[in-house]
């Protein structure tokens, strides 16, 4: 401990607290294993479908706000300025989308014992091929989700220890801790750790917002600085900018609201009343989470000019370093924020891992090995989780993309899944073939546009509209005309 570099965000005591927090997660994992009632998929992946209001709200909150919130959001605000205030609207729109289908889906899940998104797709559309396609798309999107958050975790641990633990080692170390407690106790351990992490997250973002406001003079002072330092922030939005606002809201609304790990929590709720109450509280959380981190990004733009696009993902951490050098007693706040940020990321990674494991086990492996018992299936899911976390850790270390861009790519894919869930729940005469073809065409268009951007340098967002929204528009058009023809 005496060899901690001067550049480290955490003091010796801070690192001890951080390590104790990580140790507590392993203890919770063991407790979840002890509390296991039976070695079944339902108990392991859904905690016996008995999550009450307090734990359900906190696990939804901790899952919804993750590395992209504490690292990616300030970085995006740093690059984009006041236009990114739309992020608050984005996160509120997600809750509205949940309420459009989640209570109905929860009742169906309880009646028919759904475990995965694929279970609902199979029940509603009676198509093995469609179920497998949706499952593969969700697994790819979730793997991407894990990737973004592991990159964030690497940035945080490296900054926290001043490089004593490198970016690469931080990713590996925390990945091992996550996979251990997740495979020990399943959803029960994940939900319990999420409850701890949700509380830490809320306290952490509130604390850094208050200190940033006080230390840097609030938004009015920042605005004066930005008028000179970043005049482009004040330019009127172009037609393409306005399209981008709407496109970003839509891609989050339809993409985030069908996160497979969020749907798992919908299935895990004790009843639909508990679920609705959780979402009623969640609608206010963007005001005290997303908005706070937006302000942190703006302050970073004013105080720390010249940070590169790649480095802007670390702007919240750079501000902490700046404050730590000028404010006595900042060590406690820094420790709290670092722990909160790590908690948020870990809660999201463990949730995504659990969802990937259940999707592979229930919707792919079980079809190949229909005679496998519940214990065997649970074991296969755990092994698959270890493989996924190993691959994603490697890619997180190697890939150079910003956290925000990787998040967008994930949502481009999930948007194509949304019609099957939103329309399937609410339209009784919706046929299978239109939804299947709509999904296929929409996915091909989105992937083709993303690939063309990466390989050929073509615009990632023609007219300011995401590839996923172009794909979704065609997806819905195909569904409308083919369903009309079949009816």
Report on this structure.
With 487 residues, the protein is mostly helical. It folds into two domains: 12-403, Sodium/glucose cotransporter (Up-down Bundle), CATH 1.20.1730.10; 427-487, no CATH class. The chain contains 21 helices and no strands. The chain has helices at residues 12-34, 41-46, 53-64, 67-80, 86-112, 117-125, 128-160, 167-216, 218-229, 239-256, 260-268, 272-282, 285-288, 290-303, 315-324, 330-368, 374-398, 403-414, 418-426, 432-456, 467-486. The protein is globular and about 65 Å long. It starts with 11 loop residues before the first helix and ends with a helix.
Features:
487 residues, mainly alpha, Sodium/glucose cotransporter, 2 domains, 21 helices, 78% helix, 0% strand, globular
Fold topology:
Blueprint (H helix, E strand, L loop, with lengths): L11 H23 L6 H6 L6 H12 L2 H14 L5 H27 L4 H9 L2 H33 L6 H50 L1 H12 L9 H18 L3 H9 L3 H11 L2 H4 L1 H14 L11 H10 L5 H39 L5 H25 L4 H12 L3 H9 L5 H25 L10 H20 L1
Helix pairs in contact: 1-8, 1-16, 3-8, 3-11, 3-12, 3-16, 4-7, 4-14, 4-16, 5-10, 5-11, 5-12, 5-19, 6-7, 6-19, 7-8, 7-16, 7-17, 7-18, 8-9, 8-14, 8-16, 8-17, 9-14, 10-18, 11-16, 14-15, 16-17, 18-21, 20-21
